[in-house]
Input
Amino acid sequence: MINPFRESLKSHPDRVPADSSERPARTRKFQEINDAYYTLSDESRRREYDATRPVEETEDEVPLSGTGGFSWSSFGFGTSDREQRASEQFGSVFEEMLREEGLASDDTDADGRRRTRPTSRFWSIVGGISGGALGFIVANAAGAFAGAVAGNRLGAVRDAKGKSVYEVFLDLPQGDRARLLSELAAKDRPVRDTICLFDVDGTLTPARRTISPEMLQLLSQLRHRCAIGTVGGSDLAKQQEQLGTSSTKVSSLFDFCFAENGLTAIRLGRSLIGNSFIAWIGEEKYQKLVNFCLKYIADLQLPKKRGTFVEFRNGMINVSPVGRNASVEERNEFEAYDKQHNIRKGFVEALRTEFPNYGLSYSIGGQISFDVFPTGWDKTYCLRHIEAEKDLSGIEYKTIHFFGDKSFPGGNDYEIYSDSRTVGHAVKDPEDTMKQLREIFQLQTWD
Output
């Protein structure tokens, strides 16, 4: 039988930003699930429901508001008390889950009533969140210290008012509640030790285009089973443009967002420590590299040349012979020309010859460009963040799936695709990605 507590956790409105377009629908679903539990958890109410419902349902179904013409208002679900009842029921499961994690314990107050109190571990974690620690469960000494210090303010509230753990949760800022709920939901996934990482261009979306509703629906299904993340060479703004919306941050759709191969990393909506290409290579070498690229491009004869030939990113430079300002038609034209004349391949070989001692690697990706970055700063860079998750949340990802369309030698997905730590899946396009996901994880096809 579906566990309504866990289902309400997945649909809780606090898991998305307060201004998200998803919030009204999440609120309705959250209330419906709790309405169903209120009825089915009591024998007399369940008997009345069984006698009233017009359609026979299976034991494994969780009835929702209005299903089969049945009205939950029969049990007093008016607009005035519905939200309060849902919150009270969710508070019970919230405290239950925290007890399982050692973050709450039961004691008796002065009136002899049993209450669920936060443990010292909970206060360190909440303090760590409010103090800007990297994760929810902070296992390292520095993080624990930061959590303890930042948690003093909330500890004072606890000592003064004797609040339950759920009351403390309600007092947290909405962003901190969202991160905490996401952590608990992640712990309840059926496949906790598995994560799926995806290239963006050509894998989740057509090159430089936006993601389809069908892909988003499939990824939502997948995220209920295991963790998911993006791994792109572009910056975070481009991931937002292709995968998010004006009201939905891309970081709310994935557990991890790795932009610039992981040099910019977001975990559950919060930035992790990054790195800088210029700081690594130095300004003098950087300028020599860029000057060579611009001179090389000046001597190329191509069908079209537009603008932004060298784009600086935090962890690399992206070089485009035709220019990143090219239109979709011009990109397609260059891609066909490049396949015939190997423009990018020849460019990379010239750079290898000119800068043999710079410690650089090169990878061709997308339609019109290639990346230049320090050796080891390819897409495998993101794996260090995945491996660090064991110290942050206690989850050890033993199976790391990677899906990418440039998985051939020289492609910008090749290193992570062929890495011994990953299970690589070469895809042809977003449709192929969806096909493989359905087959591997037995996901539902929506009409």
Remarks:
- Residues 278-374 form a domain with the Hypothetical Protein, Haloacid Dehalogenase-like Hydrolase; Chain: A; domain 2 fold (CATH 3.30.1240.20).
- DSSP finds 18 helices and 13 strands in the chain.
- The CA atoms of residues 2 and 299 lie 65 Å apart.
- Confidence is low (pLDDT under 50) at residues 55-77, 128-161.
